[in-house]
C-alpha cells in the first residue's frame, strides 16, 4: 500500500500517469489489503459499535442461544443494543472479528460496560455465581 500512496497520480487517469512517465503495472502488482488489516479495521468497527453502550449483544436472528441470552439480560430490565449479524451489512466480517477477539462460538457475543464478557457459557457462569446483576448495575444497564 505504501508504494501506491507514495506514487502521485497512481489512481488518476492514464493520461496523467503517462505524462509522469509511469507505466501501469500488471494487475497482479496492485496490493490488496491483507486479511489481518481487514480484521483490524473490523475490530475497530466492533469497538465503535460497543462504545458508550451499557450492554451490547452480537447475535444471529436464528440462534436459539442468542435468544436465550437476550431474554436473560432483558429479564433484569436491561435494554441491550442488539446487532443481528445475519441482518446487517458486514455481518460476516464482524463475526470474524469477534472470533479473533476470542468469542468461540462467535454468537452470541456479549459486551457489558464496553468489556467483552464472552458467549453464553461465560454469561451463564456469571449468572450462576450471582455476578451478572452487579456487572449490569456497574455498567448502568439496570437500576435498583
From TrEMBL:
Record PROSITE patterns: GLUTAREDOXIN_2
InterPro entries, alphabetized: GlrX-like_pln_2, Glutaredoxin, Thioredoxin-like_sf
GO terms under cellular component: cytoplasm
Pfam families hit by this protein: Glutaredoxin
Compartment annotation: Cytoplasm
Cleaved signal peptide residues: none
Keywords: Cytoplasm, Redox-active center
Annotated ranges, domain Glutaredoxin: 55-117
Gene3D superfamilies on file: Glutaredoxin
SUPFAM superfamilies the UniProt entry points to: Thioredoxin-like
Entry's family note: Belongs to the glutaredoxin family. CC-type subfamily.
Name of the protein: Monothiol glutaredoxin-S6-like
Lineage start: Eukaryota, Viridiplantae, Streptophyta, Embryophyta, Tracheophyta
Gene this protein is translated from: LOC111283841
Amino acid at each position: 500500500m505504501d508504494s501506491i500512496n507514495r506514487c502521485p497520480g497512481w489512481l488518476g487517469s492514464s493520461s496523467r500517469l503517462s505524462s509522469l512517465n509511469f507505466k501501469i503495472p500488471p494487475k497482479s502488482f496492485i496490493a490488496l489489503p491483507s486479511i489481518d488489516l481487514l480484521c483490524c479495521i473490523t475490530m475497530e468497527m466492533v469497538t465503535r459499535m460497543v462504545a458508550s453502550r451499557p450492554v451490547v449483544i452480537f447475535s444471529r436472528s436464528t440462534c436459539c442461544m442468542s435468544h436465550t441470552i437476550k431474554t436473560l439480560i432483558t429479564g433484569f430490565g436491561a435494554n441491550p443494543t442488539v446487532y443481528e449479524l445475519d441482518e446487517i451489512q458486514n455481518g460476516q466480517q464482524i463475526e470474524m472479528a469477534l472470533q479473533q477477539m476470542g468469542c468461540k462460538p462467535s454468537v452470541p457475543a456479549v459486551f457489558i460496560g464496553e468489556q467483552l464478557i464472552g458467549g453464553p457459557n461465560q454469561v451463564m457462569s456469571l449468572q450462576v455465581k450471582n455476578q451478572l446483576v452487579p456487572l449490569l448495575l456497574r455498567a448502568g444497564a439496570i437500576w435498583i
